[in-house]
Prior knowledge:
This protein has 286 residues and is an all-alpha fold. 66% of the residues lie in helices and 0% in strands. The protein contains 14 helices and no strands.
Amino acid sequence: MATRTRRSQRRTEALSRERIVEAAVELLDAAGESGLTFRALTERLATGPGAIYWHVANKEELLGAATDAVVAAAVAVGPGAATATATATVTTAPATPATPPAGTTDSAAEAARAAQAVGSAAEVPQSPPEEPGTPGSAQDGVRLVALGLFDAIVRHPWLATQLATQLSRSPWGTVTPRIFESIGRRVSALDVPESSWFTVTSALVHYILGAAGQNAVNNASARTLAPGVDRAEFLDTVSTAWEELDPDEYPFTRAVAEQIRGHDDREQFLAGVDLVLAGITATHHR
């Protein structure tokens, strides 16, 4: 009897909440939201549904936890980012009081493995060793967080939709505060009056998630192109079509048509972040 109990305890400890979320992210990456089912999850984890329900109550909670885990890794940039990513835990509240508490673990190895599945901090550029709290380091921090989120949305095609869902339907959850905190801390170091912190941070968040989300849609559309048609050919087609528009009705669109060819989505995204930061600096410069 004692041996059976010890085996049961080992299985419970091995199947932690972090491992379940890691497997959920893998399924989402492979098959999208429709592919994330508890049956597929139990098969991947080689366990029964009861063991999973001990940690997460339903699919909605699991989606929120997966989104939060990916975001936690994406915004963990700058000095100490690797430590922050490795120790980040999923804190989504249970859907019902009857759900047992999450079986988190203090094992650094397990947390690091979960963080690696959702995008390690090593994949995100590290911020320069500037004095924290200075406007320069704060702007660099905003850029790094923005790129971290942009790259995460590229790696995880399902993330853009889930971010929109979390921000609109569950702003009291962990995802929205995590994003606002990571950007807002840097905004507060940009000489922005406290009365404007929410507005300025919201503007940055809306641009970052909106532009990154649109890029994800573009990438998804590109994957449906006819065989043999690559991105460069697609952009050339768009550019040519714009150049042939009516010059009286679309003078501006025709003028920028050539710039579509060969542009870099990531550089364009970061240029937009810099424009927003320049506006913040010009508006709130002391």
